[in-house]
Amino acid sequence: MTNELFPSTENTDLASQSLRRRGWLRFVFSTDHKVIGLQFLFSSLIWFLVGGFLALAIRWQLAWPWTDMPIVGAWLFAAQGGQISPEYYSTLFTMHGTIMIFFVIIPILTGALGNFLIPLMIGARDMAFPRLNMMSYWLMWPGFVLIALSFLTPGYGAGAGWTSYPPLSVIAAAMPNAQDAQTYWLLALLCVGLSSMLGALNYLTTIFLMRAPGMGMWRLPMTIWGLLVTSILQAFALPVLTAALLMQLADRQWGTGFFLPEAITVNNETATGGGQPLLWQHLFWFYSHPAVYVMILPAMGIISEIISCFSRKPLFGYRPMVMAICAIAGLGFIVWGHHMFVSGMNPLLGMTFMVSTMLIALPSGIKVFNWLATIWGGRIQFQTPMLFALAFVIMFVIGGLSGILMAATPVDIYIHDTYMIVAHFHYVLFAGSVLAVFAAIHFWFPKMFGRMMHEGLGRIHFLLTFLFLNGTFFPMHLLGARGFPRRYADPYHIEAFADLLPLNQFITYCAFLMAAAQILFVINFFGSMLFGPRASRNPWNANTLEWTAESPPPHGNYATPPSVYRGPYEYSHPQAAADYWPQSSPDTA
Amino acid sequence: MSRFWSVLFFCVPVSCLAIYLWSAYGFAPLATAWLPENLSYHGRTIDFLFYLIHYLAAAVLLGTGLVLAVATWRFRDQPGARARFVHTKLSLEIAWTIVPAAILIWLALYQMNAWADNKLRRPQMESAGVLRNRPPLARIVAKQFGWEVYYPGADGRLDTPDDLYVENELYVPVDVDVVLELQSRDVIHDFFVPQLRLKQDIVPGSTQYLWFRVLPIALNRRLDFVCAELCGWGHYKMNGWLYVVTPEDFALRMNELAAERLGDTPVAQGNGAQRAAELTPAVSRQPRSPTNDE
Q1: Nearest chain A alpha carbon to B118
Q2: Would strands B146-151 and A269-271 be described as parallel, antiparallel, or unpaired?
Q3: N or C: fewer beta carbons within 10 Å in chain A?
Q4: Per residue in A345-368, is it b (16+ CB within 10 Å) or e — as a string?
């Protein structure tokens, strides 16, 4: 495909404008997609640390309820004598969920990797709208400040869960200690939502209009397909969440009653609205279920990329894989009701949502089968990115299969809002998305920083993370089978759950060890950035375009615009001399 | 080293299954971390489906795990080896689309009846020659953080002066179709009885109905019911007790409640309550939170 937008004059102007800025300003107010990608990466990793510590605090409370937290307890919870209070526990899981979803996984996959990879992989000099791109990152900052305010509001932070169901989240008297924290929470989500929408528009325009000559849609790498479909999801689903957030804001601040029923009494305060609490759930999940695919589709693209490269074999079923991504996204718009099977919505709707949800397992399965067929007959190199990718496949199978259990409405009656759900989404989001992020960082680190990560440290980090993540999340299935409910600060005073304390302690030990294993990653990441061996242009002998640019690529990415001659996965082609055949290599063997 | 990874990946499905069998068949220390004993008629279907899906899932997990392990074992990077150059195979793609699709659609259709029994087909009773919806045995009103239970009293109707009221205690006759009416005073709550496989959100501003029939083996047992939808800081301590009694004891208990309302006799000494309390272990009713006592 030819396109006259390449090279865009605006882009080159902006790039030289960025270059003229001095010192740190060049990195802070950059319009270069690579710098913006790294900005997203670093801020998400910092929030990952925060979200991780919140998870550890949650685990502490579940293993040793109402006991003083050692070392940090006296400082953090001085008012309660070093213990977590029930109010604070609500804040912990609310913030853990919100931060991990909206401030870590979504920005790291779409913001960091999307920004860094899209122009490089399609052979463009930059994004279609570099200034809009800068703005999408800078909109994250009011979000960061507001979510921090929401967390640190005197009293307690927002505590209605990351789902923030009204009336709990709307009526101040229902969470008397939260004060304005919930309002800050809503504003924070509005900011990150706007950021994602701007990003999505930019990605769509860039992928549709700025591909290098010869880069037809069927020659796009799977990572780009994943990001493309993700951007469509964000562009079409996020406006609904934005509207819902504004409605909840109006209910809280200006006395509207979208989500408040008639005449309810909370803590001796009467509120009335004439609205419907379930409306929020419908609007919220209309975005937040596609958001699940926002968090997994780019990951699936990355995994396809890495598995094909390290098997030295073409990706099996490229077109079915693309269609599976599209099918997941399409079905993703009509399954939101499976979060609401027991919510009180019409049970007939539950039946239709059950069928659509069951069907979504189909394209997910197709992806797994194609990955397995890709490695079958390959020449597998067990480098760190590949280890994370292979682990992703088997972990995703577990996360996907437990999803079928939840899709089955009669079974969901029992397991809804128990730890079975917690186990399921941690297998998808941690053992899925986060492992894919680790794989991606190890894979593209040479391109990002021009240096190689340490292989041995990477493998040890992988092994420990893999073992302890299973130790942490697998036993949660057993808790769920027992009916152990989510979001309980202390379930053990109830006879039915009293004996589950030892299992929870085991989970907590594993969670702490898993957190400790991440120190290796931090050492490897920063150590390699400073002292790692210099990376060549194409250290993995991969085919896609980014590997023909310098490591790291300069402003404008490519000295000469690349042309594309073939698909992205022509590994071990019988007519090629080497076992890889770059997309931009003009040789006809 | 590469073989180590194959073994590691194969350990995943194997150990997952081992742990499941370990807990499902009741070996220590995981003996209790599994489905609690089911005590309701419709719970049997739910448990059956729970196991059915687990068996299917186990087969898929074992299969994919085995393929992953064999592939990583056989096709590791070796000097002189070259990967097969193959892009796709239509027959394979068709096979692994159609077979799972058939299984999934069958699974979805297969359980529609169970869902309908639980949430759509409310038990009926004949009165004056016509089938009517069975009236509720009790109304449960959830609030931050407890349960108000109202019984209709002698006239069999709620919202009349003879309604009976008790907090956090629900009496249910054994082996009888029971309908409950659920309402909320403030925020969303959820009525969850693990051993009866019952769960229903209670949305303020609307009324939900829930029905079940307790198995005879549950007679004279006390079951926990809890809130399963986040309702505020005290969510974790919002629990109550469901007493399964004979229809006679149920009537007795209603009389006691009525007498208590009229101020005749102190209620705790009554026969029905005593009967239920005798047969279940005493548990402290004080939640363990050190900081918050209502």
Answers
A1: A410
A2: unpaired
A3: C
A4: bebeebbebbbbbbbbbbbbbbbb
Q: Among B42, B24, B10, B18, which residue's Cα sits nearest to residue B195?
A: B42
Indicate yes or no: CB of A397 within 8 angstroms of CB of B61: yes
Chain A residues with beta carbon closer than 8 angstroms to that of B199? 342, 413-414, 416-417
Q: What's the pLDDT at B265?
A: 47
Say if residues A451 and A445 touch (Cβ distance below 8 Å): yes
**Sole residue written with tokens 């049997």:** B44
Q: Omega before B247 cis (within 30°)?
A: no
**Which of B284, B209, B204 has its CA nearest to residue B241?**
B284
Q: Tell me which chain A residues have a C-beta less than 8 angstroms from the C-beta of B35.
A: 481-482
pLDDT tens-digit readout, B152-208: 988 888 998 889 999 999 999 999 999 999 999 999 999 999 999 999 999 999 999
Q: pLDDT for A257-285, tens place per residue?
A: 999 998 888 888 888 888 999 999 999 99
Closest approach of A196 to chain B, Cα-based (Å): 28
| Chain B nearest CA to A114, separation (Å) | 26
Task: Name the maximum alpha-carbon separation found in chain B.
Answer: 95
DSSP A362-397: HHHHHHHHHHHHHHTTS-B---HHHHHHHHHHHHHH
Kindly provide the ipTM of the predicted complex, given to two decimals.
Answer: 0.92
* Contact assignment for B199 to A390 by CB distance below 8 Å: no
Task: Sort strands B208-213 and B177-184 into parallel, antiparallel or unpaired.
Answer: antiparallel
Instruction: Give the closest of A167, A365, A485 to B96, CB-based.
Output: A365
Q: What is the sign, positive or negative, of the torsion defined by CA atoms of A454, A459, A462, A467?
A: negative
d(CA A309, CA A299): 15
Q: What is the pLDDT of residue A19?
A: 55
Contact flag B9-A394 (C-beta cutoff 8 Å): yes
Q: What value does the mean pLDDT take over residues A36-55?
A: 96
A331 contacts in chain B (CB < 8 Å): none
pLDDT in tens, B99-112: 999 999 999 999 99
Tell me if the pTM is above 0.90.
yes
CB A117 within 8 A of CB A444: yes
CB contact under 8 A, B228 and A416: yes
Closest-CA distance of chain A to residue B66, Å: 10
**A450: exposed, middle or buried (C-beta count within 10 Å: 0-12, 13-18, 19+)?**
middle
* CA neighbor of A328 nearest in space, from A294, A371, A369: A294
Residue found under tokens 């590691």: B8
Q: Identify which of A314, A390, A398 has the shortest CB distance to residue B72.
A: A390
